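thought: user wants a sequence for this fold. calling inverse folding tool.
action: design(structure=
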C-alpha cells in the first residue's frame, strides 16, 4: 500500500506527517509493507523541510526529517497512490479535482503552521501525531492479517 501525505508546499505538515507515520509503523509487522511519502500541491521542488518542522520532529519525537526534499504532486504519483492523507479539506477537494476518488482520501484537518513560532509547530505536530495514531489503528482494523 502506498500512502501519500499531501499539503500545500511539502515543507511543514506533510514531511512531518510522513516522518511521524513511518515512526509509528516501523515496528509493526502488520503494516510493514506500507510505503509512506509526501508531496505538495504547489511545492517548490527540492526545498528542505522547514526549520521548525525539523526541530520539533527531532526534539519531541526523535524523528529526523532533515534530509527531506519537497516535491510537487504529479500524475504519476497520483496513479501510484492507494491512500491520500490530506492536511485539509481544501487539499482533498483539489485532489478530487484531479480525478482522485473520495474513497481514497483521508483528511487530518490540520492548520498550516507556516510562518508561526515554534509553539505553533509543536501544536501542529502533536495534532498530526495523534491523528496518525488513529489512522494507523484504522488501517490495522481494516487489514487484520496485515498489508
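)
observation: tool returned 147 residues.
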Amino acid at each position: 500500500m502506498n500512502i501519500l501525505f499531501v499539503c500545500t508546499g511539502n515543507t511543514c505538515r506533510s514531511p512531518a506527517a510522513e516522518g511521524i507515520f513511518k515512526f509509528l509503523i516501523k515496528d509493526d509487522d502488520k503494516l510493514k509493507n506500507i510505503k509512506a511519502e509526501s508531496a505538495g500541491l504547489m511545492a517548490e521542488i527540492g526545498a528542505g523541510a522547514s526549520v521548525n518542522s525539523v526541530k520539533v520532529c527531532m526534539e519531541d519525537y526523535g524523528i529526523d526529517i532533515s534530509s527531506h526534499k519537497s516535491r510537487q504532486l504529479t500524475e504519476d504519483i497520483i496513479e501510484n497512490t492507494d491512500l491520500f492523507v490530506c492536511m485539509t479539506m481544501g487539499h482533498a477537494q483539489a485532489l478530487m479535482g484531479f480525478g482522485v476518488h473520495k474513497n481514497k482520501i483521508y483528511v487530518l484537518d490540520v492548520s498550516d503552521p507556516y510562518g508561526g513560532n515554534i509553539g505553533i509547530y509543536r501544536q501542529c505536530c502533536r495534532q498530526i501525531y495523534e491523528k496518525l495514531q488513529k489512522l494507523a489503528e484504522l488501517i490495522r482494523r481494516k487489514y487484520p492479517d496485515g498489508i
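thought: summarizing for user.
answer: Here is the designed sequence. Helices lie at 13-25, 51-61, 75-79, 89-97, 118-142.
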